[in-house]
Amino acid sequence: MLPIPAEELNGSGTLGPYWTFYRAVAAEQLSRWLPETPSTVLDLSGGRGRWAAQTARAGHRVLEVVDFRRAADGRPPLHDASKVRRVRADDLRFLPDRSMDAVVAEERSMSVELMAESSIDDVARVLRPGGRALVCVDSLVLGMAILAEQNYWAHLRQTDEVMLVPWPDGSITRCFSSGQLRDLLTEAGLEVEWVRPRTVLSPSTVDHVLASDSRALTWLVNTELEAHPDDDDTVGIHLVASARRP
Q1: What is the Cα 40 distance to its own chain's centre?
Q2: Torsion angle (degrees, nearest 10) of CA 172, 155, 5, 30
Q3: Could you give the CA distance from residue 26 to residue 51 in angstroms, rounded to a whole number?
Q4: Whether the Cβ atoms of residue 232 and residue 178 lie closer than 8 Å to each other
Q5: Is beta strand 172-176 parallel, antiparallel or unpaired with respect to 163-166?
Q6: In this structure, how many other beta carbons lie within 10 angstroms of the beta carbon of residue 201?
Q7: How many C-beta atoms lie closer than 10 Å to residue 221's C-beta?
Q8: Helix boundaries (H) for the chain
Q9: Rounded to an integer, what distance in angstroms lies between the CA atom of residue 238 and that of residue 57?
């Protein structure tokens, strides 16, 4: 069975406390990861605005690449709109080499891009020396659970091959082990700083703690981020990695 039901994975459904916790972990992780000085940041997280807005609030200039496959959503202007520029594009050819201080690829964007090697090569190209990339992908744990839920038992064997997973809605994503994600980044010429699950605390644990004390969210988030389960891909529906261009 899925560690989290498929209908919950878009953040809706009955797991409200868990998704509140998950989003708080992601936001705090980004806050700790962003450059300490004002920088130019490329956001490849699908054009949803959330990551660009947080990055702009932290004092950075943001170039947000809007997913060209998604219709314009008519969102209201950001409070920090002067620091965020949006571009609709299907690749990064419009950007010169070594033009970005950091790249944020959240929202599982490198799992949606089935040819992630090409996308990561572009990320490495546009990063300045010393620039960093933050990347979030679907994990093998999630991929195998989705296959099991759909009775694709013949596919449930862990190999070094690329795992492409069909979702109930007809979409396909690419799932990674920690080793595969590490290889993806290093083969693009990036130095991997760390690879870890986004969360290791289970929804039931989070729900129990928050039901006992709603003020415990900050404690839960700090507990999660201080666990540092590097390269552990046996838990968690998503993996997150940080890498640097030499």
Answers
A1: 19
A2: -60
A3: 10
A4: yes
A5: antiparallel
A6: 20
A7: 21
A8: 16-33, 50-57, 109-112, 116-126, 140-149, 178-186, 203-212, 217-225
A9: 25
Strand-strand pairing, 238-244 and 191-197: antiparallel
Spatial distance between the Cα atoms of 242 and 244, rounded to a whole number of angstroms? 7
- The span from the CA of 133 to the CA of 155, in Å, is 31
pTM above 0.90, yes or no: no
- In the 8-state DSSP scheme, what is residue 199? -
CB distance 153 to 218 below 8 Å:
no
Calculate the alpha carbon distances from 145 to 19, 48, 139, 184, 230 in Å: 19, 27, 10, 23, 22
Per-residue pLDDT of the chain (246 residues; tens, 9 = 90+): 344 544 445 444 456 788 899 999 999 999 999 999 999 999 999 877 899 999 999 999 999 998 755 545 555 445 556 789 999 988 899 999 999 999 999 999 999 988 999 999 999 999 999 999 999 999 988 888 888 777 765 555 555 677 888 888 888 899 999 999 999 999 999 999 999 999 988 888 898 898 888 789 999 999 888 876 666 767 789 999 999 999
Cα–Cα–Cα angle for 237, 6, 136, rounded to 5 degrees? 30
| Residues 6 or more apart in contact with residue 186 via CB below 8 angstroms | 192, 243
Cβ within 8 Å of residue 54, ≥6 positions away = 27, 30, 31
Residue 190 contacts residue 133 (beta carbons within 8 Å): yes
**Spatial distance between the Cα atoms of 107 and 100, rounded to a whole number of angstroms:** 20
